[in-house]
Specification:
4-stranded antiparallel β-sheet; mainly beta; 19 strands; 3% helix; single chain; 209 residues
Length: 209
C-alpha cells in the first residue's frame, strides 16, 4: 500500500494528468479526465484512491495502480467553479473548497455532512493536516483559515489579509503552516504563538515542508 505513495507522483498539464514512476520518470498511466483543467489531486492515506478536482467543478476518483476511474457520487456538489478536493480522517471524508463554499462529505456514500459559506471569498488552495483532523484554506483575497474536519467548523484565522494565497503546507508534529502568495511572500504560521513569521520568497511562490 505504501508503494503507491513512494513511487507515484502526478504531473498536471492543462487538462492532462499522468501518473509517473519516480524512480525512472516513466509514464505509468494517463488519466482519462475529460475536458477541463485539473485544479487539485490528492491520494488517500493508503495510496489506494486518487481524488481529482476540476476547474469546471467536477470531482473524479481514480485507481492509482491502473489509472482507471472509480465510481464516486457526492450529494449536492456545486455545479460550477474551480474545485479543490482532498481526503481527510483516514480517507473517510472528502474535503472540498470551491468559490465561497467549504464542505465535508462522506467518502463512502457521498453524503453531505457539513458546509460553510464565506461571503466575499474565493478559495485558491487547500491543505490537509498529516493526521487528517483539520484543514487549511487559502483565498484569492489573501486570507488563510483552519477548519475542523470532524465538525466542518472554523478553528482559527491564520492570515487575515495580503495577496492571493498560491500554496499551503502543514508541518507534521508542530502544526506550523507555510503560506505562500502570488507575489512571492512566504510566511510561517506558528500555532504555539498564534503568530505569522515572514520568510524569504520569490515570485511566483510555492512552499512546502
Amino acid at each position: 500500500k505504501s508503494r503507491v505513495l513512494t513511487i507515484f507522483d502526478l504531473l498536471v498539464q492543462e487538462s492532462d494528468a499522468v501518473i509517473l514512476d519516480l524512480s525512472s520518470g516513466a509514464v505509468l498511466h494517463r488519466l482519462d479526465t475529460g475536458a477541463g483543467a485539473v485544479t487539485s489531486l490528492a491520494f488517500d492515506a493508503e495510496g489506494e484512491r486518487l481524488l481529482a478536482g476540476y476547474a469546471d467543478g467536477r470531482l473524479m476518483l481514480f485507481d492509482p495502480e491502473s489509472g482507471a476511474p472509480l465510481p464516486i457520487e457526492v450529494d449536492g456538489l456545486p455545479e460550477a467553479g474551480e474545485l479543490l478536493a482532498a481526503f481527510a480522517l483516514g480517507g473517510t471524508r472528502i474535503v472540498t473548497a470551491m468559490n465561497d463554499r467549504f464542505d465535508i462529505w462522506d467518502a463512502e456514500n457521498g453524503a453531505h455532512l457539513h458546509g460553510e459559506t464565506l461571503p466575499d471569498t474565493d478559495f485558491s488552495d487547500l491543505a490537509i493536516a498529516p493526521d487528517g483532523t483539520w484543514a487549511v484554506t487559502g483565498a484569492h483575497e489573501g486570507h488563510a483559515l483552519s477548519w475542523d474536519v470532524e465538525t466542518g467548523t472554523l478553528r482559527a484565522t491564520l492570515r487575515r489579509e495580503g495577496s492571493q494565497v498560491t500554496s499551503l503546507d502543514i508541518e507534521p508534529g508542530t502544526g506550523a503552516v507555510l503560506i505562500a502568495d502570488v507575489f512571492g511572500a512566504v510566511q510561517r504560521y506558528e500555532p504555539e504563538f498564534d503568530a505569522l513569521i515572514p520568510m524569504v520568497g520569490s515570485s511566483p511562490a510555492a512552499a512546502g515542508f
